[in-house]
Write a structure and sequence with these properties.
single chain; 59 residues; alpha+beta; two-stranded antiparallel ribbon; 22% strand; Curved DNA-binding protein; DNA-binding; DNA binding
């Protein structure tokens, strides 16, 4: 009884992936405004030998 309630009360969390780090140049003044920017980058896709097979564009 109690175990089922606790199971249903739990929030489902999205699966977490790997972290990425990207250097973005901007002026300090830009960080003070409520602007949003879309950042595009290419994510390498590796084969089983560790060599880059292709790059997937991401936004």
């Amino acid at each position: 009884m109690f175990g089922q309630q606790a199971h249903h009360a739990r929030r489902q969390q999205a699966a977490r992936g790997h972290d990425i780090e990207i250097e973005v140049a901007m002026f300090l003044e830009e960080t003070l405004t409520e602007q949003t920017r879309t950042i595009s980058y290419r994510l390498p896709v590796y084969n089983i030998f560790g060599m880059v097979e292709s790059e997937t564009p991401k936004r």
